[in-house]
Amino acid sequence: MDPATELHWIYNMLLSAYGPQHWWPGDTSFEVMVGAILTQNTTWRNVERAIQALVAADHLNPTALASANPETLGAWLRPVGYFNVKTKRLQNFCRWYLAQGQEEGLAKIPTMELRRELLAVNGIGPETADDILLYACNRSVFVIDAYTRRLLARFMLARGNESYEMLRAFFEAALASDAAIYNEYHALIVRHAKEVCYKRQPACESCALEAHCLKFIM
């Protein structure tokens, strides 16, 4: 199969195996944005604990977070690790978000322009920006993470030295420009990587993709 056909085959097989994922977890688009920032270098369970602390303190809104005392906010974010750094990143983002006019303001900005503006916010990298664009703003931008790289390597669709932007462009060129498909595909990759396609000793006997996987252990 050519690479584009193989990407479609992987998507269809994962969707058949796991069904729709209804991802990303969050009650509001702003909560999804906060989660995207806090999940850097930690587990989602830890993010949930931090978000629960923000809710309990009535601070899960951009105005309260932007003006919060950094030490107090850091204490609420302690479960996610690097809480002093993440306090700065979250407050930087909230101040930018307020200045843009919040959700209504972002909706007026074209996708690639919005992506450039997000990347200009201190502490927001490509993966976090694309998480926000796809899952909070419903924009057609594919998210590349370690799980995606692992899957591509095992199918020899990537060698491991490609840049983030190269892999994002690869997915977006192969798939229809559809935020719903991008959302579902990335969520399926995450689930498959966590449940079957482990970094070490993958459970190949349980893999829906085994027929075409080349079993490169990456």
Could you explain how this protein is built, in words?
With 218 residues, the protein is mostly helical. It has helices at 3-18, 29-38, 44-56, 62-67, 70-76, 83-99, 102-107, 111-119, 126-136, 146-154, 164-174, 179-195. Helix 2 crosses helix 3, helix 5 packs across helix 6 (83-99) and helix 10 crosses helix 12 (179-195). It is globular. It starts with a helix and ends in a 23-residue tail after the last helix. The model has no long low-confidence stretch (mean pLDDT 94).
Summarize the main sheet.
none
SSE order, as H and E? Answer: HHHHHHHHHHHH
C-alpha Rg, in Å? 18 Å
Distance between the termini: 22 Å
User: Could you tell me the strand content as a percent range?
Assistant: under 5%
Low-confidence stretches: none
Tally of helical runs? 12
Secondary structure category:
mainly alpha
- Net shape: globular
pLDDT averaged residue by residue: 94
| Total beta-strand segments | 0
Helix content: 55-70%
Structural features:
globular, 12 helices, 218 residues, mainly alpha, 61% helix
SSE layout:
Layout: H1 3-18, H2 29-38, H3 44-56, H4 62-67, H5 70-76, H6 83-99, H7 102-107, H8 111-119, H9 126-136, H10 146-154, H11 164-174, H12 179-195
Short structural description:
With 218 residues, the chain is an all-alpha fold.
